[in-house]
């Protein structure tokens, strides 16, 4: 939680700095002085309003976090444009007749964030092949996480993605948490559960840190975590809470309670040592754990594959790089596949989004995993 808080505080402070910088840049346009009829004090007011009003509109439409993200990107591109045009001025030898750096910054920001919007709102398919020496045959697993129903799509959009997943003919679908969040409407939850009930394959689910609505004491979505579990179960979804189920004759699926249960937000969860005690290791074991936070214990337990979500792939450049360089997520992965000892770990960037509606460091996805035994 501390790294997240530090990141949030850093974003807010950077957003304030970006706001002041952008006001000073906008003031260089001639329109502010022209509208103020030559009165410099009023020209600064007009420049401030030119930045604040669009920022307020974004805040109202998409929330304060996305307003900060837009401000930061615009400030960064403006800074780079100023540097570029200062260099070109030296090479050109003459001053520019108009303030082209500002226009360039606006166009670059619009193009870049538009691409980030597409990467967050469109869903790609990502494929992995994982080999094992165990004679277990082949298992085709579809993985999705972090649908946060109602953010980038509602239940009808979710159903369309399920159709795409079903077309890949997986043997089962696993959902690694954050199916809904504190802002999901009850009708959306119910319709999404019904869409899962239409699938012609087994579906397994574990809770994420947002599914029970525990982060908002005034949560008004109209349903609890128990209501969600009951609705999923009524639609044929297997809700796993520190439980192990067999998949055929050669695989185990271990569904963990979320790590947030250990932070006073629930009833706790079993350790990996407790869960796997006495487990038949001749079978291939797959762990479904929303947050990729327990790699050492999971590797030490001898399980074969751990599937997670939660991180949203790091979301943005440079957040992805900062998280990795400074180990803000500990030593566990932010995105992709890695191997520790005899255990493979896989983290998906998620099929949707939550507070931030742009993905510039990754893209939304569902995952198709083919496990191939000897």
Task: Please indicate the percent range of residues in DSSP E strands (runs of 2 or more).
Answer: 15-25%
Largest sheet descriptor: 6 strands, mixed
What spatial order of strands do you see in the largest sheet? 1-13-2-3-4-5
The helix tally amounts to: 11
Total strand segments: 13
pLDDT under 50 segments (min length 5)? none
Rg (CA only): 24 Å
Alpha-beta classification: alpha/beta
Give the % helix: 40-55%
Would you kindly provide a written description of the structure presented here, covering whatever features stand out?
- The chain has 374 residues and is α/β, with parallel strands linked by helices.
- Helices cover 42% and strands 18% of the residues.
- The protein has helices at residues 2-26, 30-35, 40-62, 64-92, 100-121, 155-167, 186-197, 225-234, 272-276, 295-300, 319-325; strands spanning 124-131, 138-144, 172-176, 203-206, 237-239, 243-247, 251-255, 284-288, 305-308, 328-331, 336-340, 343-347, 365-372.
- A six-stranded mixed beta sheet has the order 1-13-2-3-4-5. It has a six-stranded mixed beta sheet with strand order 6-7-8-9-12-11.
- A hairpin with a 3-residue loop joins strand 6 and strand 7.
- The longest helix is centred in the N-terminal third of the chain and has 29 residues, at 64-92.
- The radius of gyration is 24 Å and the shape is elongated.
- The model has no long low-confidence stretch (mean pLDDT 91).
